[in-house]
Specification:
Blueprint: H1 3-26, H2 32-48, E1 57-62, H3 64-70, H4 77-89, E2 94-100, H5 107-117, E3 122-129, E4 153-155, H6 159-162, E5 166-169, E6 173-174, E7 180-184, E8 186-188, E9 193-195, H7 197-206, E10 210-212, E11 216-219, E12 222-225, E13 231-233, E14 245-247, H8 249-253, E15 265-270, E16 278-279, E17 287-288, H9 289-302, H10 310-333, H11 337-359, H12 367-403, H13 408-416, E18 425-437, H14 439-443, H15 448-469, E19 472-476, E20 480-485, H16 494-515, H17 518-521, E21 525-540, E22 546-550, H18 552-566, E23 571-574, H19 575-581, E24 589-598, E25 605-613, H20 616-627
Parallel strand pairs: 1-14, 1-15, 2-3, 2-15, 3-5, 21-23
Antiparallel strand pairs: 3-4, 6-7, 7-13, 8-9, 10-11, 11-12, 16-17, 18-20, 18-21, 19-20, 21-22, 23-25, 24-25
Helix pairs in contact: 1-10, 1-12, 4-5, 7-9, 10-11, 10-12, 15-16, 16-19, 16-20
Amino acid sequence: MTRRVQILVALALTALWGAGIFAAHAGGHLRFLDRLEATLTDWRTQVRGVQRPPDLVTIVAIDDTVVKRGGSYPLPRADLARVVDTIVQFKPKVVAIDLLLVDRSAAIGDATLANTLATGPMVLAAAAIFPSASENVAPGSAGPLAVLPQAERFLLPLPAFADHAEVGIVNVATGQSGSPLSVPMLFRTRDKVELSFPLRVATRALDKPLTIAPDHLMLGDRAVPTDTDFALPITYYGPRRTIRTVSAQSIFDGTLNRAAIENRIVVIGASVAGGGDFYPTPFDSLMPGVEVVSTAITHLVAGDGIVRDHRVHIADALAAILLPMLLVGLLAWRRSALGIMAAAAVMIAWAGLNTFAFTHGVWLNAATTLAAAVPPVAIFAGVQLWAGGRRTQYLAAKSRSLAQFQAPAVQEWLSRDPNFLSKPVRQDAAIVFIDLSGFTSLSERIDPDALQEILQAFHARIDKAAVDCGGMITGFLGDGAMILFGLPAAMPDDAARALKCAIDLHRGVEHWIASLPSAIGGQLGFKIGAHFGEIVASRLGETHQHITATGDTVNVASRLMEVAVRNDARLALSNTLLDTADFQGAPDGVLSGPLLAQVRGRSGVVTVWFWRDRDGPKQAAAKAEAID
């Protein structure tokens, strides 16, 4: 499978994963994502910071001060009637009582409260009773209202109170973290649909007709975007008491400010410690439920709520599919630090865009997109790392294999410049040839495995001498080798290093032959030729290339081995090599000559010198052993 096909398959699987994650979560599965989204929502709310709410709502709190004055909770109906009566006298737009008036009390107190409720625009709270702790009950009918939370029944105020007021369901929907993230606007039982408490209050305060559209609500001519189940997403303005709050005790003390009530929405609710109606929010560990409800009322009336409607869900679906594909594509595009940096930049940009949208009133889902993006990106990156490791091992093995055929300097040069010697180069270089004598006849008499061991040992001697002197073995010629000095670039000491290599080879191979059994060593000899001059360096071959040198210098160096044999010597050196190496002789060697020699394949003559150890073969062998 080609790399392009692999990338296309990875992108297709990534898209399917993202679509599956979004569909599964939208279908009510993967509930752990709701807890993650709640946590991320709290974080984004804190990033946005505290906001000043529109000054539309006043909360009249039945707090600990009021309870201490009366000595009991719930507040006696007669005292509640006094609170409501005082508020009505200050001409509010609507009075919303966030207290469940479902039980009978003292007859006089109930009658007094009923009469008071008839004096002004009132909305009372009712509760929906669900069959389980969850309010998201599976729909039982088709149509837009089928997605509404279905209650077993509604817990309504006493008829004596409900006859003088409108009624709304006060339940809120809490996320996995316990923090209310939305308030349902509509509730249903088997036979009826009821409006929520905040929606009743907002409708009464605005005095505009309510229209229920398939995917949103209309308050007059203003659309109220809701979630898919007609829930109103809420985002908190700040900690408790950010919305204007006064204590009901100010009514009993006669200190209530008329400006806090007049022409405003007034919500009466409990904030008694231990009262049970408290919720965690991004700004508070405990916020009274009346403030949660008042936040929803403010959103509805002011139109400043956060948007999480069907268009936002489409954007969420696209993000869950496209973002992972983009990240995987970037990692596939550049399997290096650049690709990782590009993918990280995209993730940071997405996080910034998501947070920016949230702080400006659009709630894009973060948890679903992360769940869609992180696993495929992690898997793809892991596969990339694994494949990269395998590729690194493969390249390292190739490098080690290459090192067996190319000198380290040439290998390094090829890694930097793959086109090295793609065109022939003419330059000066030194050439050393070595060849075993008697190897062919020996191979006819001994075991092939023993013969292979002899050849490997001989090649090892050549390889060590070449590497130590910085030469490049251009090829092993069966029982011989050619060593080149001058690549990857010509150096001033090429001739000197070639001369040293030739002498080291003379001593090393002589010592090695002396160490062999006499039946073998007595049949072997060797010859070495070395010359310096102009060569043509190039790469030969198509699919399997090798570096070599050609020209008259190579031919002369090879023929010098024949000159050495004819003159009963083992090492023949050209005068050109010695002059270029500035050789002044050595105390442990004897240089004899010069000899004007005719070499095969060349019309002129070559000035040749012969080198041997001053101390003879045994002492030379000892020196070679010491060097080893």
